[in-house]
Amino acid sequence: MSKQLFSKDDALQYDRQDPLARFREEFYLQPGKIYLDGNSLGLLSKRAEKSLLQALASWRENGIDGWTEGLHPWFYAAEKVGAMTAPLLGATPSEVIATGSTTSNLHQLMATFYKPVVGKSKVLADALNFPSDIYALQSQIALHDLDPHEHLIRVESRDGLTLSEEELIGAMSDDVAIAVLPSVLYRSGQLLDMERLTAAAHEKHIIIGFDVSHSIGAIPHELARWNVDFAFWCNYKYLNGGPGAVGGLFVHHKHLPQVPGLAGWFSSNKESQFDMSHHLTAAIDAGAFQMGTPHMLSMAPLIGSLELFQEATMPALRLKSLQLTRFMMDLIESELAGMDVTIANPTLDQKRGGHVSILHEEAVRIGKALKNRDVIPDFRPPNIIRLAPMALYTSFLDVFEAVHRLKEIMVNKEYTHFEKKRSVVS
């Protein structure tokens, strides 16, 4: 796409040429609104709604027998969803399971793989990571009677937005036992080189895992080939699984079978689970990392949602995502020049996730003004607006219209009509 082509007709032409345009009809788009917050909560698809209603129908019609009967028997649903997710991660079905939440899965993986010993007890993370991951790492360190202030290394950012991979690798000292890093930074959208970081960690005999919440469904992964030890994520962002959707985790096949650090009822091998023995016979695949009973009504929408990813394919989705974010950045640079709006995310395709981040000192009020103009962004303190055009349902015309509404807000200073205070949920 040329930076000189910024007309509405250009956007319409890109939409006519879009091979994924048909998927837009699969979603419940909000009339009159441009939804650019799918990196926080993806929209409901008709397929996700259908698979949820199928789960309810199975409960209604089969009662307890829904565990083994019906279209999607509940007893095997976590493995089914895991198998559907695996291609998005470059993994085999045995390495992936749908279970828990982002934070509970991190606790499970840390309980399994964090084995501090004298001289190798530290945890490597970064200063820009999502707070919940840091809380979990701090608590896991404390459970080993170690001081989180001493044993948690957080690599700082030089600009407050991005991380240096060289500095992350430089922090992989001999006393680090495990590293937990984001695949894509939630504020700036920087995409880290997971393959490079994994190779560097393993040279120092460090177990390494990634929070891929902001990359799964937005970029292709090759976790097995990259030799990543583990990964965890939520399914309500790019995968459109619904609010509070069941999360997921990946464990590299080299670690399987593995007795989980936190065992439970569904850690069992399915063939012996109902033997009721007090001796755990753990599953030989990633299913061992489950604890409690699957939350079926929070998992069922994923069955329908993941069908769309199978049909669209990750390479095609990534290509369109890059085109949408490039178009958005080009428009911002052209239309908002001289308005103190700065693009905060990396501009190189290989360094960018699925959203565009812009900086402005009035970001919180600009975000409110955008919502008032029926453009749905999100705000991250202190001064970031994130705009996420989603490859499955955002059009190029949506991007064009959103940027032009933003321009009008800036020109007319419409944001001054709103309180400079974030909402409870932003």
TrEMBL record:
What binding partners and quaternary form does the record give?
Answer: Homodimer.
What domain of life does the UniProt record list for this protein's source? Bacteria
| EC number, as in UniProt | 3.7.1.3
Q: Name one GO molecular function term.
A: kynureninase activity
Q: N6-(pyridoxal phosphate)lysine modification sites?
A: K237
Record field: catalytic activity = 3-hydroxy-L-kynurenine + H2O = 3-hydroxyanthranilate + L-alanine + H(+); L-kynurenine + H2O = anthranilate + L-alanine + H(+)
Role this protein plays: Catalyzes the cleavage of L-kynurenine (L-Kyn) and L-3-hydroxykynurenine (L-3OHKyn) into anthranilic acid (AA) and 3-hydroxyanthranilic acid (3-OHAA), respectively.
The keyword Hydrolase is assigned to this record: yes
Recorded family membership: Belongs to the kynureninase family.
Protein name (record)? Kynureninase
UniProt GO cellular component terms: cytoplasm
UniProt entry tagged with the keyword Hydrolase: yes
List the Pfam families hit by this protein, alphabetically.
Answer: KYNU_C (PF22580)
Q: Which residues bind pyridoxal 5'-phosphate?
A: T102, T103, F130, P131, S132, D133, D211, H214, Y236, W265, T293
InterPro entries named among the record's database cross-references = Kynureninase, PyrdxlP-dep_Trfase, PyrdxlP-dep_Trfase_major, PyrdxlP-dep_Trfase_small
- What cofactor does this one take? pyridoxal 5'-phosphate
Per the UniProt entry, what are the Gene Ontology biological process annotations, in alphabetical order?
Answer: anthranilate metabolic process; L-kynurenine catabolic process; L-tryptophan catabolic process to kynurenine; NAD+ biosynthetic process; quinolinate biosynthetic process
